[in-house]
Structure formats: structure tokens, C-alpha cells
């Protein structure tokens, strides 16, 4: 089974090299789709094999020197679920890019280049690596690879603004990576191995150091306060890149490594949870306030990603403070948000492709001319805002339930939850307001002149819309199978 | 088939009907027909499901596992839930019948998707009242708001968009408050099941907090003052049969929630619960009808009347809760009886009035009463059923509105007799406010009927009106017949509803109706016989008519010709009084209450706050970039510049660096 | 089994009595409106028509043609009958001759007030239906006056009901008639307030605003003629009588029969009509000492009445 996982990780790298070398414009996009599909099948098989093995955690060390494990793979409910999500979304994004990255694109008419698909495939492979990795060193390796790929992909259009945004993203996430370097080194010095599960054996003070290191890296990668500035500017990237990196995968690296760390740490020192919660609340409020001036749809979505990730951090911090329900909520949130936010970004991309603009004042009455995109906008907005039957609610609810449960003994947590609930309602109102502005009413001039989308783009939108309803149930089923022992 | 199975069948019919009608959304008439038929079948199945529960008062349970470990899907159909399902199904059958013809009005403007949202709206309401788990309760509550939001958006103009935004915002904020209340329960109960909530004992302070949160949340849904702002905007924007459902049943979900949390889950042991409900109810009823008077848009007027009637229902429920708290079974039973009976009656006559308004709009394409007029000749069936509806809502005997208001009055009278000093004053105060409400409502509906249907047509469109298609007429007639029936056979309906209120309050049952007579106490001091009053009314109407008929031979035939007297001037149509003019004296007399509305209107304040926030955020956004990132980014090259002199380019200086470093290291090694 | 109190339970004989008393009042309605005309004429130093003039008027009107404007609908045609019908049902259930309600299940205070509301409703709607300027204005005034007057009537009678322990007229009259007044001051003040409300409901100056002859050409009556007008006149007069009857029979139940023998009932009837006549004449004389007022000032007057009834309620709460 570990070979299957290795294959899932390595295959996209191989594909990247191959795709990078092909020059035929009509061939390499489809080739990229094939490799991404193969990787997705691999992730699915890994998940299915783990499920049929009926054991909570499966761990296979791959490279070790004596007692020191350098690199290995871990399969449990969380890693198989998230692994499937990131790789599957990678496939959808590659498929979407086939239609989007062409000269017909009204916003960025640009002939497709092989390096785009190559870097994207490398990214998919690196993501699978981060998710399945069982050591801090492995996580660190793929963490930095994703950083490099993001630099390449954000600056794809090669304009000065894109290049400076890409540089900013790279540098800030790399600064975050210092935390992970420190954590890995400290863990090795105290436990003699890089395995994340070794955290359990450390004394509380060392645990705190390692966890704070991971937390710092997570903040950097997930664009939390104080390292949030790179994400809004990274919107210079082509929209499929934004959808994948900045909704589904790269920003999820941060929350994922933090989730892994607190899951494997046994008794987590309270200070970690408290700091995590307070910083997440700050990010939440700041992110919301920054919604208000935005007229560019993608920048709005960037800030929305920042706030949604803050929610996930809240959930993980609540787990660190003692609530098991919060972990289930946070992981489900990761899964659900990936689909919903990708849908939202791809809707923005479709609007840009068809009309040439993503400025919201210029986009009105979308539902009349492009009903699928309009419906997608609505579904995505409602899913992010947390309205059932869409997936967002089913992860927000247990998160708040966990918070209130903890708040019974610690009043300040209840206060935090109330602030978060207020922000949730405010986000809901704002997104609904934008929905009313952009989707309803009489079509504006830009919308009237919109061109139709390609089949691949429509297909991906539909798949994501379906997932925005179903993913909550999939996540709940996967994370709460009865024989799964609680951590 | 058991109750639960019928219920699931009904839900399935609604959901399947919704999706099938969506598939045919391009062929609009087919889509409408499918949605209408599935609505009617679902409604019939719903009534079949709950009829045994209403008659025998036995509760039905079911439990289904879901992927969510913390929330199995549990169903509980007790008397209250059965009653709500019955009311919903009744109105759904009628509005589905109405929609066959009415939706033609929306051809090309979204008629194809209307059936989808309607059916999902209805299904979520029915699932909501029967859910016994807090999680699923909230899921269906939000889905109900979501589906009706899209119905409000049907016209897709700016008005509808703003109305929808305000509506969904308040509904969502309300559901968040309810969610917090349920979370507090969850902390102490350990699970989300309502059965666990019922067993949990909360401290008085927590119990009060939970009640207030739930009261505000459900009250926002019910449209009580001061959380009513969305009602007059949202209900007129939706298509009329959707407005009928929203006014007729959706706001009742709010009342249902207050009863569920206050009485069923919390036990209503605190006297203040009932007093708060009573107070808000009384204020809502008076202010609601007062604001209705100022309207000349017929649907906005009806929306404000919903606020008024919700207030009246809340008064009855409030008395019931007070009765439970002071352990007076008569008060508890009769108060809740009045509230629930009025809930049913209001659904029927408000549905009828909205359908009537829809019929007017179908022919005239206007909501402005000042453009109507003379319709009683041109649309006779609509006029007759609308007249019955206005008489019912003004609580005139022998219609249903009178019976439920009678019970409410009697329960308030009972409150004034059995209580401490607060209740002794609160009871008569509420009675006077109810009387005032009744008089104002009569005024308002005289205006509505008189201006819309009476007199002469005031515009071209009114003059060209004709009767509406058969399905719409039949739907309105059905509701009108129900208005009459629910009034006359009050003695049959009363025991059923009394059974529900007895079960809710945990009291011993006592007889409230016999042989056509209803009473309001276990030791009755007064009685009401609707059948006899109806017969005597008809008899005493017949007496003068007989006299008139007897003398017919002595005079010329009746004549209806010519203009009204205008003091010798040539009569013109616009000499007649207008809608605004009719109510002007009253509005001047009650001016302070109208200015409250303007002073406390939160919208301008909210606008200013939002604009200020946007401006602030716009100025703050570049802050991080300019003040933190850029200085750091500029700092590095600055440092680099400062130490550049170290690399002057002279190779000999670099050799000197080597020597210095070597010497330093040797010195360190020597001292170690 | 429901056990109704004796004053509320209806037997066949009592029911028949109720119908009889309603018909008697119906027949006497023109007499009383004639008395009102007579008193007004004499006070205004005119001879006036005789007391029986209204009978003659009605007889003549029944031979005239029934004319309505062409846009009048069903409501206008039905209005005169509904007026008489609704008030007759109230008349039937009042404890006029005996200390019990002949039609107990219709003799509730709330029922009576809402039957009067039915009266007012149809009166006003018909005013709007004919599309005449004057009748529309009259209708507007009628319903506005109803809003101002109903709370006074409701509150004053409610105080009596609270004292008697029941909202049924039969019980109220029995308690006031047979037992010593346990809240004497409250009862007395409530009586005054009720009299005030009744004065308004009778449509006496300054409250005849709906039919203000000098201003509105008889308001909603403008467009009626012939038999319909006759019936409306009967209906309006019947209403004044019934409203006074509430005060005379319920609040001042002296002389009403306690047992149900024929002689007692006849005696009670005579006493009742005496009381009715005296109060009616007093009201008419009082009316003619007052001047008409502006409609918008009516609110200032009714507020006084409402204040008196609140005073009565306060006395009840204190226990006096």
C-alpha cells in the first residue's frame, strides 16, 4: 500500500517532466489531465485500501537511518480524506485550465504554455507528499516545493505586478518555513527522530516549542495574521491557480501540518490552544473588515479564504484545548471549504473568461446570460456563508458546538464564539449582498457581451456544485466510522 | 401505514415533485402543473399522516441514523406538530390549486423554477415541525428561509433584491440566536436530542437566557415588533400564493418555536416568560394594525396585518405560559387554545386575503388600491370570498376569527381574575389593546374592501377587469367555506385543539364544548353558541327582508342607475374618497405612534454605519502593506547598502579579512 | 358535562322570550326615534311632528322606489338587513325583562361588542360602495369614531364584568341586581363611563358625526331611498335603544323579574320600558344642550370618557 502512495506522489513529478518537454499545444494539456487523473485514482485506491484494512492508523517508514525515520507515509482517516480532496481537486483544476488558458480568454488572452501544467503537476505531487508524510522533515521538503511552485505559478503571466506578488508570496511563506525548520530540528534533538508521532513522548515545554514552530509555519502558509499580506496580492495568478493554490491546497498545507501536529501530540499544552485561538480570532475580524472595500471579486475571495482558514484554526485550537468534536469539525471544514472555495474561484474565473472583467460593479444580472455561473455563484456564496443544505453549515455547526461546550468551563471561549458567530452572520450578509448585486437584475453591458464557456469548464463547475452539497456527508461518514478509535 | 410512513411519503412527494418540476423548467406550464399536483398530493398525504394523532392524541416516534455521530435524525409527531402539519398541508393544497392558473402571470419571469422552491419550502417546513433533534431543526429552519428567499427574489428587481436581503439577514440572525440557545442546552444535556433537552434542568438565569435568545430568534421569524422590518418588504415581493404560505404558515413556525422552547423544552416555569410574550404580543397587535392603516399597497397592508395577528396569537400563548407558571390549568389550557385556534384561523383567512390580492393583481397588474375600485361587479366571486375574508379577519361573528378572539378575550379575562397585582393590571390592559386592535382592523378592512371592490373603477385597468380563472376561484372559495365552517362548528374544533393545549401544559382535561356551545372555564361563567348565533342572525336578517318583500307590490321596481348626489355639480369619479383620505383622521389622531416608526428606523443608521466601515476599511487596507511589509522589504537593501563598503573590490582587503579571522580563531582556541 | 350557571343556561321558554323581546324592541324603534325628534323640536321652540310620525314616514317610504347609484354592489343592497339583524341578536340576549339572559350563549359582552362591530362594518362599507363623496366621508368618520368609542365601552363594562366574575350580561345583571355592591365606587364610576360610551354609540350630538346632517347630507344614508332607507332608520334607532338597554337592563337591573312567572315577566317588562324611556329622554334632553364639534376634536372628548373608565378600573383594583 505504501507503494501506491509513493506512486501517487511521484507520478505527477514524472508527468511534469514529460509535459514540460512536449511542445504540441493541443497535446500537453490533455497529457496533464491524464497524469492528474492517474494520481486521483491512486489517492482513491489508497483511501479504499485503508478503509478496508479497518485499522485506525497505518504507518510505513520509507527512509530511515537506524532509529531515525527521515521519510515515511501515514494513512488515517484525516490523511486519506484530505489526500483525496487535494489530488482530486488538482485533476478538476487541470481540466478547467484546458478551457481557461487559451487565447479566447477575454481577460487574459494567453496561449497555454507547458510550464504551467508542469508546475501544476509538481504541485499536485507535492501536496500528496505533505498530506501522506509521517515526518516533519518530509512535510518540510514538500512545504518548500509547494512554495517554489507557487512562485512559478503566480508569476505565470510575467507582468511586473505578478512577479512582485510571486516574490512576496515566496518570501513570506519561506519566513514561515523557519518555524518548521526550528520545529524539526528541536524534535530531532529531543526525540532522536523526525516522526511526528514522537511529539507525544516529549515533555510539555519541548512540545510547546515544537508546536509553536509548526504553528508559525502554518500561519505563514495559510495567510493568517501576521503573515496574511501575500494572499490578496497573489490574485495576480491565473484563476485556476488561485482556485487550487489559494483555496484548495497550498493554504491548506498550513492547517494540515498544524492538525497533524496537534493530533499526534497527545496532551497538548494549553498555551498553544490559547495563542492559536486568539490569533485566529484576530485574523477573523481583520479579514472580515477587509471584505468591505473590495470591488475585485478575486480579492474578496482571497480575504474570504483568510477568514475561513481562521475558522479552521479556531477548530484546531479548540481541539488543542480539549474538545474532540472540534477536530472532526475542523477536518470536515478543510474538506468542505476546499470544494466550496474552488467553486467560488472558478466562478470568478468563468466570469473573467466570458466577460473580461472581475470587477463586481461591472458585473450584474449574470443569471440571465450565464445561468450555470449564476447558480454556481449562489451555491458557493451560501456554502461559504454556512447555510444548509450546503456543506459549510455542517462543519461550522459542530465547530461552534465544541466551542460552547468548552466555554462552559472557560467563559472567555464563549465570548470568542459569540464574536465568531457575529462575524459569520456579517459574512453571510455581505456575500448575499454581493450575490444580489452581481447575479440578479438586469444584465450589465459586460455581461450582455459575454461569450459561452467551454465544455470542460462547465463540467468542472457542475462537479464542484454537486460536491458543495455532498462533501459534508462524505466527510462526516469518513471521519466518524464507528470502529475508528478516537484520538 | 403508520403516521411516520405517511409523513415520509408526503415529504418524498414534495422533494421529488420539486426536482422533476425543475427538470422541465424550460416548459413552464408543465413545470407548474407538476409542482402544483405534487403540492396537492403531498398536502393530502400530510393530513392523512397527522389525522390519527390529532384525534387520538398519541405521539409517533421514529429514529434514523445519519453520517453525523452527534445528530441522528429523530422524528416526533405530537399534538402540536400534528396541528402544524395539518395547518400547513391545508394551506398547501389550496395554494397549489391556485397556482395552476396564477403562475401564468410569471411566464417568462421565472415560473419554471418557482415550483422547485415552493415544494422545497413546504417540505422543509413539514420536516422542521416534526424534527426532534436540534441539529436537524436548525438545518430545516435555514432551508425554509433559503427556499422562501428565492421565492421573494422572483421579480428580480431592485425592490425584490433588497427585500430578500433584509429578510434572509434577519432570518439568519434569528437562527443564529436559536443556535446559541440550543448550544447552551447542549452543554448541559450532552446531546442534541430534544428529549434530552426536556430532561435537562437549567439554572433560572440560564433558563431565562435560553428563552430570551429563542424568543428573539423565533420572534424575528414570526415578525413581531420590533423585528418585523422584513415582513412588509418580503411578503409583497413574493408571488401571491407564496405570500399566502409565508404569511399563513411560515410566521407560525416562529410561534411554534416559542411554544416548543418555552413550554415544551423549558417547561415555562418562570412567570416572566409568559408576561414578555404577552407584552410583545399586545404591542405588536396594536402597532401592526396601525401601520397597516397607513398603506395603500394592498399586499404591504396585508403583511402588516400579519404582524397584528401574530401579536394576537402571542397574547393567547403568553396567557397560556403564565397559566403554566402559576399552575392554573384553566388559564394554561384556554390561553393556548385561543392562541392555537387563532393560528389556524389566521392561516385560513390570511391565505384567502392574499389569494384575493393575487387575483386582483392577476387582472389589474397593480398593487395600488387607489387604482382599483368597482371590482365587486366585475369580479363577483373574488369579491364575495374577499368580503368573507375581511369579515373573518375583523373578527365578526359568525366567522372563525371571532371564535378564536373570543377565547383569547376569555383567557385574558381569566388572567385578570386569578392573579397577582401585575397580572390584574396586565390582563385588562391587554383586553383593551385587543379591543383597540379589533376596531382598527375593522376600520382597515372597511377601507380595503370599500376602496378595492366598492365604488367605481378608478383607472383603465380596473374598468377592464374580469373574473379570474376557475382554479383560482375554487381555491379562494374553499378557504372562504373554511372560514365559515371553522366559525360555525367551533364546538367540534375546540376539543381537538384543547387536547393539544392540555397535553402541552400538562393539565387535566376538562370539557370545553358540548352541543354546539363552547365555554372557557372548567366552571363556566359564560358560553358561546356559534350555530345558534348564525341561525338567529339569518333569521333576523330575514325578518326585515320579509317586510320588504311583502310590500313589493306597492312600489315601482328597484332601480340602480345614475350618479351619486354631488350637490348639484356634475359628478366625477375622483370626488370619491381615496384610501389615504379614508384613514387620514385616524392617522392624525395617532400621530405619535407613527413618528416612533421613523425615529427608531434602524435602516438609515445601518446605512451610515456600513458606509463608515467601508471608508475606514478602504483606508486601513494598505496599512499592512505600507507600514509593515514595505519598510521591512526596504530595510534589507538598506542594510545591504550600509555594509557594502566591506566588499570594496580590493583583493588585498579580502586577504586582510582572512588574516583577521585566522588570528581571532587562534586566539579563541588558545584561551579554550 | 358542562354545567352552565342559571343566568346563562337557555331553555325553550327563555329562548321564545328572547325572540319576543327582540321583536318588541324592533317594533318600538320608530317610536323612540319619534320621541327623540319630538324632544328636539320642543326644545328648539318648534311644535314638531307627533311622536308617531316615524311610523308614518316608514309606511310612506315603503311605497317609494328603491334607488341606488349604478356602481353600488351587493353590499349596499344587503346592508339594511344586516344592520337590523346584528342588533336584534344582541337585543335577544340582553336580560331586559328577567334577571337572566334569554339567549345565554349569545349574551356575552364580547359577542355583543363584536355584533355592534358587524353593524358598523356593514354601515361603513356600504358608504364606500356607493362611491358618493358624502357617504365615503361619513363611513370614514363612523369607523374612526368606533375606534375611539369601543375601548371606553369595553373597559367600563369590563370593570363590571370583573366585579361580577363573568362577561355574560345575565350574570352581570343578576349580581348587580340581587347582591349588595361589593365595589360601590368602582361600579358607580364604571356606570358613568358606560353611560358616556353609550351616549357616543347612540349617535347623539356631538357624536352624530357620521350622519352630520349639516355637513355630510346624512353620510352613508345619502344614497338610500324607499324601503332601504326606512329599514336603515329602523336599524339606527334600534341600535340606540339596544345600547341604552345595556345600561338600563344590565347596569341598573332594578325591577327585572327574578322568577319566571308571567306576572313577574310582565312587571319586569313594564319596569324596563320605563327605565328605557327615562334614560332615553334624559339623553335626548342632554343632547340638545350641546353644540356640534369639529370632527378632529372628537378625540379630545372621547379621551375624557376613557379616563373615567380607567378611573373606575383603578377603584376596582384598589378594592373600593
TrEMBL record, chain A:
The chain crosses the membrane at residues 6-24, 31-50, 70-95, 116-134, 169-189, 209-231, 275-293, 300-321, 327-351, 372-391, 411-433, 453-479. Signal peptide: none annotated. Keywords: Membrane, Transmembrane, Transmembrane helix. Its main location: membrane. The keyword Cytoplasm does not apply. It is found in: Endomembrane system; Membrane. It comes from the Bacteria. Residues 134-416 form the NADH:quinone oxidoreductase/Mrp antiporter transmembrane domain. It is a multi-pass membrane protein. This is Hydrogenase 4 subunit D. It comes from Exercitatus varius.
